[in-house]
Amino acid sequence: MNMVLENDELQDLYRELILDHARKPRNFRRLDDATHTAEGINPLCGDKLRLYLLIDANDTVVDAGFEGSGCAISMASASLLTETVTNISVADAEACFNTVTQRLTLGSSGDQAPHKIDLSKLRALDGVRQYPSRVKCATLAWHALHAAINSQSTATTE
Amino acid sequence: MNMVLENDELQDLYRELILDHARKPRNFRRLDDATHTAEGINPLCGDKLRLYLLIDANDTVVDAGFEGSGCAISMASASLLTETVTNISVADAEACFNTVTQRLTLGSSGDQAPHKIDLSKLRALDGVRQYPSRVKCATLAWHALHAAINSQSTATTE
Amino acid sequence: MNQPQPTLVADIAACRNDFPALNQDVNGHSLVYLDSAASAQQPLAVIEAVARYQNDDHANVHRGVHTLSHRATELYEGARDKLRKFVNAASRAEIVLTSGTTESINLVAQSYCRPTLRSGDQILITWLEHHSNIVPWQLVCEQTGAELIVAPINDRGEIELDELYALMTGPVKLLSLSHVSNALGTVNPLREIIDRAKKAGITVLIDGAQGVPHMTVDVQALDCDFYAFSGHKMFGPTGTGVLWGREALLEEMPPYKGGGDMILEVSFDNTVFNDLPYKFEAGTPNISGTIGLGAAVDYLQSVGMDNISEHEKALHEYLVDKLAGVNGIRLIGTARNQASVQSFMLNDIHPHDLGTIVDHQGIAIRTGHHCAMPVMQRFGLSGTARASLGLYNNTDDVDRLILALEKARQIFA
Amino acid sequence: MNQPQPTLVADIAACRNDFPALNQDVNGHSLVYLDSAASAQQPLAVIEAVARYQNDDHANVHRGVHTLSHRATELYEGARDKLRKFVNAASRAEIVLTSGTTESINLVAQSYCRPTLRSGDQILITWLEHHSNIVPWQLVCEQTGAELIVAPINDRGEIELDELYALMTGPVKLLSLSHVSNALGTVNPLREIIDRAKKAGITVLIDGAQGVPHMTVDVQALDCDFYAFSGHKMFGPTGTGVLWGREALLEEMPPYKGGGDMILEVSFDNTVFNDLPYKFEAGTPNISGTIGLGAAVDYLQSVGMDNISEHEKALHEYLVDKLAGVNGIRLIGTARNQASVQSFMLNDIHPHDLGTIVDHQGIAIRTGHHCAMPVMQRFGLSGTARASLGLYNNTDDVDRLILALEKARQIFA
Ligand SMILES: Cc1ncc(COP(=O)(O)O)c(C=O)c1O
Ligand SMILES: Cc1ncc(COP(=O)(O)O)c(C=O)c1O
Questions:
Q1: Helices A72-85 and A90-105 sit at what angle, rounded to 10 degrees?
Q2: Chain B residues with CB-CB distance to C373 below 8 A
Q3: Which residue of C has its CA nearest to D268?
Q4: CATH number at residue C251
Q5: Domain boundary pick from C275, C302, C329
Q6: CA atoms within 13 A on the CB side of C61
Q7: Tens digits of residue pLDDT in D119-148
Q8: Cβ(C131)–Cβ(D268) below 8 Å
Q9: C359 contacts C27 by C-beta, under 8 angstroms
Q10: Cross-strand pairs, D346
């Protein structure tokens, strides 16, 4: 990151990890064989993304991808999400949803996710808490995850 | 009038002449042979009156009457009106309308009415100027007069 | 005065000082404001909340990432949360912010009734209703061919329950009923009526314009389907109001108005409406007014709705006693359960004249039809004089009114 | 800065001090407010007019004979008179007070169009419009079977006039068009367009939400049929607005909402509607807000609309020049006639991120779709950043924005 940021908070929001995932989102692709999918809409800005999950017979998420456009925060969050939920059970994915959204909205420590899942990268999103109007950007993909798992077609963050 | 009125303004509004006409309105009757009629509605209070005019071939008001209910001010004003416009020409009646409404709303001296018509009794209504919310009560019948002469069916004072 | 003073709730006496408008002279006399049923005065806390918002926090809501927009949104949505708690709605999605009771009722008429009513269907109201709870139904009946039917009231100004229940046996789709009559003060037995309506499968809207200022309202306990009220009658700003509706019903209703904020997505092929409650809130809302309304809720809760009810009940009894002592007074509205709203006539003095005479002595009462012409017709009157008591009134106010009425009686003697 | 300072209208510089909200720090920097197109700040004169009314004069309007009710009515109707002069309406009957532009447009859609449109009829709008000037027409088209047709815009954000005129040859009943685009700042050539529409027998509504804050509006000179605008964009309170309409058209239209004040007489057999403008004003209006709006008109007239236009034009040129110096800036909206509203993109930085970064430096800009998604679609964007300049902005504000954009560029380098 460029050194013009004399300001800690802004630096905290746009961490190198976030900017990296925003520039080069992982799993940015449509899953043609998706078993579950949902759209996330942020009415504030009109941004939309679509999340795809491939869930197998053992209720394991075996693949995840997304498409759409959005700000650095929402793109990075979606990208990190797809990495996080691949190869874990649906129940664990739902636990991740709870942990992440609670951590971002309530600032709670969020110990709902099983310890076996490494959520440390997602700490990169924590800077968003200082920007309440941007929390919705960070949680958008996660709401879409929750919707997809629960077979709803759309999630909004209002 | 009772002597409890220590206050000039109130006394000015409820002059003996007003109270007398309000208690015993003159020409309070329907004219079955009316040639012109109009209703006056005061939306503020819902009061209504209907004015009847009998206008002959020479454009003279040969008879005037009214029916309806209202406050002392509107009843007295209607009563005085019927006395004033009987046996004058339609043009003079319209001039009286202009004079009276202008005197009450603008406080202008109102010299539009021909001198031959005696409007002195109508000065009893002048006290209403101190009560802007009541001016409409005093002008209601006059607006009905104007409407009747001009073949409109209703006049409102809003 | 040889009557004992009623026991009013002690702390409430001090509330009067919270209302700057009451501290003024009118026509050379200190103001006695007995017109709260038309519109209540505002406590300083409300006036200041609005001014503070304008001075420090104003921006448009919902749409911006900048700090002021965020602050404005938090304050505005915070007011919604307060209102939700105030009427005990199950969720904030059920609190639709409107410009007042009238708009809330029109919203239900146009979005709930208009798309579904058919010729042969009926809407049921009562003779007690305010024009805002009559005309919207006349309009939608004309638009749909449905029929408006009306339950009568008795000489005390109470709904004839037997006749109301008899009417419920017809093809009635909606009952719309006031919580408290603004003209007569009648408090309707909502729990019982709603119960009967539910059993008959009838949707129920309560016009709560005169309910919320006087008593605790719990929409879940009432078990109605819609509850409408205005900010300005509960010590908040004009241009604000609420439609509470059951989420399941609101969910099914098409939007009322189109515009910004009520959509998720607009294109010329396909427009997607927003979630509740935003689906019903098109355009920039009354942000400052709603924030003021939130402050009014805080104020009411700090005084306590039960204290307010108790105070007003005692003061209303005092008023009725005193009026009874004035020669030529006829009370209009003598329901067994009555809020602190009292209509009356004095001899054959037209209410308008009465209004002017008491105003001349600094006393504000309302005179006329109170936007309830059918009630007036029911009593064979074109209007009444009405004194309505709010939490800030006291026995001195009543005494001043009585003296002024005596003077009027003498002028017209 | 090596550019010469533009010549701004001298007195206007001092106006900034009239706006208390501008005198604050946000995120540790003095506030630069560049979001007036979303909602303008209020001068102290407006804030105080509202507070003064609440402190001294509040009561319900139109219905009372007592002194406060009379004062409130005079103030409220006085605001209507000011608004009439402000847009040069022929009579006060033509000034319908609403809660804002959105409601004004919905009123026309529901009361003018809905009763008369038939399947086969068309409503014509443009790609420039705000959602509030799109969705009401989508709703009424769905209700009536009429068709919504849309004139395209070019790459500068100007309406393609030839195509607009070609569309006018169809069965078009109404043209609804913005005065000024809120997303792109385009000032539409109204005189010419209205002329063509009139010749084709088409009724014309102008969405003036972004017109009135920036320039003199004369509805008679424009010769349109309806003109809609909002109080909060012209330095007045939220929850206020106007629908100006030609008296002859308003006269024919059925009421929009039912309720108190819009009737002369209510009975269960026969309800008589009130005269204009009251027929369209059901229920207790936004009294305090409208009085504040009257004060905003006074304020604008004391500054002078021509001075405002001149100031904003110079400042907008300055902004465009400065933006041109920022590496990676792309202006969205480059109409030849443009108001002081400027959308832009900076490299591929998402507007949301840009908004947060400049907010962090105390600068409020709007980011997103600006309730004009079709405009965004036209430019292949999901949103833009938008700086909108009001009479209180100055070159320092622009300079601060430019510095903040440089910082954003570097973060995302
Ligand atoms: C061009 C235009 N039209 C309509 C509107 C809607 O105005 P309001 O939200 O005040 O109803 C706006 C502002 O949001 C606008 O900019
Ligand atoms: C019982 C009742 N219903 C409805 C209304 C209408 O309320 P508003 O004028 O605030 O819309 C009122 C007050 O005027 C009322 O007293």
A1: 150
A2: 46
A3: C374
A4: 3.40.640.10
A5: C302
A6: 26
A7: 999 999 999 999 999 999 999 999 999 999
A8: no
A9: yes
A10: D329, D349
Active site residue C371: yes
Q: How confident is the model at residue C157 (pLDDT cuts 50, 70, 90)?
A: very high
Q: For B29-61, how does the pLDDT look when each residue is reduced to its tens digit (9 = 90+)?
A: 999 999 999 999 887 777 889 999 999 999 999
C199 contacts: CB under 8 Å, gap ≥ 6: none
Task: Please give the residue that has the higher pLDDT: either C382 or D157.
Answer: D157
Confirm whether the ipTM is greater than 0.90: yes
Which residue among C62, C272, C275 places its CB closest to the CB of A44?
A: C62
Q: What is the CATH number of the domain that holds C321?
A: 3.90.1150.10
Residue D223 burial (C-beta neighbours within 10 Å; 0-12, 13-18, 19+): middle
Q: Which residue has the tokens 């009001």?
A: D390
Q: pLDDT digits over D3-18, tens only?
A: 555 656 667 889 999 9
- The answer to whether the Cα torsion of B117, B123, B124, B126 is positive or negative is positive
Residues D215 and D273 grouped into a single domain: yes
- Give the residue on C whose Cα is nearest the Cα of A42: C264
Full domain range(s) for residue D373: 10-30+305-411
Average pLDDT for D182-208? 98
Residue with tokens 């102008």: D206
Answer whether residue C281 is part of any domain: yes
Query: Whats the size of chain C, residue-wise?
Result: 413
For residue D272, the CA-to-ligand 1 centroid distance in Å is 33
Buried/exposed code over C209-237 (b: 16+ C-beta within 10 A; e: otherwise):
bbbbbbbbbebeebebbbbbbbbbbbbbb
Q: How many domains does chain D have?
A: 2
User: Cα(C93)–Cα(C246) distance, rounded to whole angstroms?
Assistant: 9
DSSP for A17-56? HHHHHHHS-TT-S--TT-SEEEEEEETTTTEEEEEEEEE-
What's the length of chain B?
A: 158
* CATH class of the domain whose range is B2-156: alpha beta
What confidence tens digit (pLDDT) does each residue in B71-98 have? 999 999 999 999 999 999 999 999 999 9
Q: Which amino acid is at D267?
A: S
Is the pLDDT at C350 greater than 60, yes or no?
yes
Facing residue for D410 by CB, picked from A4, A72, A133: A4
DSSP assignment, residue D148? E
Closest of D84, D81, D60 to residue D70, by C-alpha = D60
- C-alpha angle with apex B66: B61 to B71, nearest 5 degrees? 135
- Residue A60 and residue D34: Cα distance in Å, rounded? 49
DSSP code per residue over D292-345: HHHHHHHHHHHH-HHHHHHHHHHHHHHHHHHHHTSTTEEEE---SSB-SEEEEE
The CA distance from D237 to D231, in Å, is 6
Q: Rounded CA gap, A82 and A77, in Å?
A: 9
Q: How far is B105 from chain D (nearest CA, A)?
A: 14
B115-121 own/partner pairs: CB under 8 Å, 24+ apart: B117/B84, B117/B88, B117/B92, B118/B84, B119/B84, B121/B17, B121/B80, B121/B83, B121/B84
Tokens matching residue A26: 């992982």
Confidence class for position C6, pLDDT limits 50, 70, 90? low
Contact A110, A104 (CB under 8 A): no
Backbone angles phi, psi at B18, to 5 degrees: -65, -50
Mapping DSSP to helix (H, G, I), strand (E, B) and coil, where does residue C392 land? coil
Are residue D218 and residue D94 in the same domain, yes or no? Answer: yes
C155 within some domain: yes
Q: Specify if C5 maps to a domain.
A: no
Q: How far is the CA of C101 from the centre of ligand 2 (A)?
A: 6
pLDDT digits (tens, 9 = 90+) for D43-81: 999 999 999 999 999 999 987 889 999 999 999 999 999
- Residue D5: inside a domain: no
Average pLDDT over chain A reads 88
Task: Enumerate the residues of chain C whose CB falls inside 8 A of the CB of residue B12.
Answer: none
